[in-house]
Structure of Helix-turn-helix domain-containing protein:
Amino acid sequence: MIPRNRPVINEADIAEQAGVPIATWRRRDAPAFRQRVASLFPRSRILIYDLAQARAYLAGGPIPVLPAGEHPDDLLNDEETAAVLGVTASTVRAYATQGYISAGKTVYSVRVWPRCDIEERRKNPPGQGKGGGRPPGTGKGPRKAHAYEGDPRLHTATAALSTAGDTPRHRIAASLAQQHGGSTRTWERLLTQVSQTSPPG
């Protein structure tokens, strides 16, 4: 994660600040740098570093310690966001496309989301409390037409069903469970709901 929305830098810009070509930096300088300064997203192939730490290294000074603990302004990538929401990284990307969570912002090609936004979504899933369920002013009455109303997985199930052809529903469900998390039975119920609510033809 990027702690508290701190300024960051990638290796191309570090090499530029060091006054060497990026190819030279990666071959000659990067190994020693990476031993001293940790990437903020260790599991990502895109290496991003804290700007203050990188500049301290280039200046030959002590490397400052990053703030510890969680903070509302932390910026999380898809895997870290997935861990908060209890889903997979691919589901997080689908959620962002479908509007279930914000689109986030891109930092050096990495899509990130503020921790405060993700925690708010975790505490208020669709149909529950602030940010979920019906828009204000639409009256009371039955809260949901069906158990999965407002669930963003319905969009995923609809797309899968529309391209499945004659594939048995349980096989579609098993594939969705493997890709997006959750149980095969849950995805079967979602597929059933989609097939019941989709208009004929």
Notes: The beta strands are 8-10, 48-50, 75-76, 105-107, 110-114. The chain has a mean pLDDT of 85.
